[in-house]
Write a structure and sequence with these properties.
By secondary structure, this protein is an all-alpha fold. The protein is about 90% helix and about 0% strand. The protein has a domain at about 25-58. The longest helix has 30 residues, at about 25-55. The chain starts with a helix and ends with a helix. The relative contact order is 0.06. Keywords: Membrane, Transmembrane, Transmembrane helix.
């Protein structure tokens, strides 16, 4: 039963993304930019943390 719920949720998300891209491509590009900035910031934070650990936590 949970698998069907997951499939429905994925389907709804995909339909929503396609709707946003078709109706307002400029806004969709802003969302993609925000997503990539978030991923970049998270990767930078992980890199800083690993560097901190490698330096002995100083």
């Amino acid at each position: 039963m949970a698998v069907q719920g997951k499939k429905i949720a994925v389907y709804v998300v995909v339909v929503f993304v396609l709707y946003v891209i078709i109706t307002d491509p400029e806004k969709a590009s802003d969302y993609v930019l925000i997503g990539f900035e978030g991923i970049s910031t998270a990767a930078q934070a992980i890199g800083d943390f690993m560097t901190w650990i490698a330096n002995g936590g100083e």
